[in-house]
C-alpha cells in the first residue's frame, strides 16, 4: 500500500486503540459493573487495531530495507493479548489485565535493555535498536513516575507483573491501578 | 406552562431525560395466549397489559374476525430494586433484562423476571370478591377474647359468637406477589431466561454459564454449561431435553441434556457466514436466539448485511458512541414466515423468509396518528432518492428499537421505543395463518 494510506491506517488504528482503552477504563466505573461481553469485544477490537497499527508501521518502515517485507508480528517480543477462548475463570481477569499486562511487560522489556539508561552518559548509551513492538506506543501516557531531584530510579525485576516479591509490588503500585476484582 | 410569561423559557430537556431514564423499556413479552403483555423497564418495574375482550354484538358476522381488543394496563409492580454487592463493591442494576411467562395452569398467571443477578417468580392473580361480615371486635371496638367465644354462626351472631364472613363481589383487584427468589446463581450478568416445556424447570444464562433451576427450589441450581462465548440460551417449545445457545461469533449450538450432565460438547453446530473485520466481530454479536415455534428447525437473525448494511460506512462513529454494542432483538411471527428486528431512528424492519424482501416501518408517535396505517420508510443509500427517504447521516442513533415482541397467534406486535410502547395490528391479515 502507498505511504499515505499506510499513514492514514496507522493514525486511524491509533485512534481506535485510544478510544478502546478509554472505553475500557470508563466501563470500570459504570453502574452495574464490568460487562464481560462488552469488555471482550473491546479487547478484540484493541487487539485487531494493534495488529493493524504494527503492520502499518512495518510497511511504513524504509522500503529500502533488504529484509523480507512482511514479517509476521508474532515473532516480535510484544506480549500477546490472551485469546478469547481460554479457561473461563481467567477470562475476565485476562481481559481486564490485558491492558495492564501489555504495558507492564513492555515496560519490563524496556527496563531490561535500558537499565539505568537514563543515567548513562550519552557516549555509553546502547546503540541497539529496540524492536518496534516493544517501544511504548506513543498514544499511551507515560507511566513512569516523575523522579524527585536526588532520587534514583530502580529497575523493576523481570517478572514483576506477576504478583511475587514484595518489592516488585511497591515498584508497580505507583504506576498501575490494580482493580479489586 | 404559560403562567409566568416573564420568566425566560427554561430548558427542561435535561430534566426530561433524567426523569425518564428509569422508564426506558428493557424487555417486552407476550404470554402464551397473547392476552397479556408484560414490559420491564430500567427502573425495575414490570407493567402488565391485558387485552380487552370486546363484546361481540352487531359486529359478529359470518367470517368476520371483528375488531381486535386493545391492550390496557392490568397491573404494575416493582420487581427488582437496586442492590449492592459488598464483596465486589459493585452496584447491581435493577433493570429488568428478561421476562418470561410460565404456561398457565390455573386461574393465576406466573411470570419470571430477572435483572443482572436475581430471577424472581411472580404470581399474578385476580380478586373480585371480598369477605365481609367479620365481627372480630365488640361494640366498643376491642378485639373479642377468643376464650369467650362459644358459637360460630352465619349471621346475626350473639355477642359471644363469631360471624362467618360472606364473600361479596367487589371491584377487580390484581394482586402480584413474589413466590420465589432465585439469587446467587450467577457471577456475571444474566442475559436470558427460558422456561422448559416440562413446566418444572427453567434455565438462566449469563455471559459465561447456563444454570438450570427447578421452579420450586431456590437454594440450588445446576450449572450445565460453561462457555466464555455465550450470548443467549433458549429452550425449544416442545422438547424438554434440548436447548440452544448462541455465541458472539454468531454460531448456534444445540445441546442435549440427556447426553451428559455438563453440556459443553454440543450436539449440533450452526455457523453462518462471517466476515473478518474487527468491527464486524461486534456486529455479529448482536443476535439473539429464537426458536421457530414449530420446534423443529433452529434459526436466528438473517445475515447482518441485509439488516444493517447501510450502517457499514458508519462503523467507526457507531463504535465511538457505543451504538455498536446495541443488541437488537429479533422476533418471529407465529407462522415463522416473517422475522422482525429493530433499528435506529425509531425504525424497525420486517423480512419475509421466503422472498427475503423487507419493509421498514417507524414507531414514532409524531409521525403517525393512532389507528392510521403506517407508511413504509426507507434509508437512503444511493440511487434515486424518494420523498420521505432518510439519509444515513440523519439517522437518530439515540432513538433505537431494541426490544419487541410478536403475538403468539395473531399479527399484533409490541415495539418498545425508549420509554414508549407501541402496539401495531395488521387489520388486513389479522391471523398469521392467512399470510
From TrEMBL, chain B:
InterPro entries: PP2A_PR55 (IPR000009), PP2A_PR55_CS (IPR018067), WD40/YVTN_repeat-like_dom_sf (IPR015943), WD40_repeat_dom_sf (IPR036322), WD40_rpt (IPR001680)
Matches recorded under Gene3D superfamilies: YVTN repeat-like/Quinoprotein amine dehydrogenase (2.130.10.10)
GO MF annotation list: protein phosphatase regulator activity
CC terms in the record's Gene Ontology section: protein phosphatase type 2A complex
Swiss-Prot/TrEMBL keywords: Repeat, WD repeat
Keyword check for NADP: no
Protein name as it appears in the record: Serine/threonine-protein phosphatase 2A 55 kDa regulatory subunit B
Species of provenance: Fundulus heteroclitus (Killifish)
